[in-house]
Amino acid sequence: MNTDFKNSIEKIIANQHADEGELLFQLKHLLQQTELRNAEKHHSRSLSALVSENIKQIRGNKQEGDAVKSGFTEFDNLYGGFSPGELVVIGARPSMGKTQLLVNLALNISASAPVLYFTF
After folding, report:
1. Tens of pLDDT, residues 66-120
2. Residue 115 and residue 91: Cα distance in Å, rounded?
3. Are 98 and 92 in contact (CB under 8 A)?
4. Among 69, 70, 54, 66, which Cα is nearest to 103's?
5. What is the torsion angle, in degrees rounded to the nearest 10, for the CA atoms of residue 31, residue 34, residue 38 and residue 43?
6. Quick one: DSSP state of residue 115?
7. Whether the Cβ atoms of residue 108 and residue 70 lie closer than 8 Å to each other
8. In this model, does residue 62 exceed pLDDT 60?
9. Residues with Cβ < 8 Å from 101, sequence gap 6 or more?
10. Which of these, 61, 72, 74, 67, lies nearest to 108 by C-alpha position?
11. Cα–chain-centroid distance for residue 66?
12. How far is CA 55 from the centre of its chain?
């Protein structure tokens, strides 16, 4: 067990002025902080590592039947459509037509594949 973690637990428990609810709250908070720190250390990966692992898919090494057509012929010719499970983020300045574009894409694609549309 980490010495700092053990000392923190002992310090919380040694506080004689706190009631049981306060002690439990402090212990839970300490556990949550420790879990978050450990998760960040073990699960964080750089963008370059993710790109290098998926470079073939990113470069368009897709099989012909996998692409979902957008309904916009020129877009499909340039980008090959969308891959199943692909996450697409569209960003631009306000009032540039992002919502209208995505609503039209969602309507076109929903005829042949399920679509999940988020907007903020």
Report:
1. 788 888 999 888 888 887 777 778 889 999 999 999 899 989 988 888 888 777 7
2. 19
3. yes
4. 70
5. 70
6. -
7. yes
8. no
9. 90
10. 72
11. 23
12. 19
Q: Which of 107, 95, 34, 1 is nearest to 117 (CA)?
A: 107
Tokens of 96: 């540039």
The Cα 54–Cα 58 span in angstroms is: 6
- Written as one string, the DSSP assignment of 47-83 is HHHHHHHTHHHHTT---GGGPBP-S-HHHHHHH--B-
Residue type, 11: K
Considering only CA atoms, give the Rg of the chain. Answer: 25
Supply 66's token pair: 């996998």
The Cα–Cα gap between 55 and 57 comes to 5
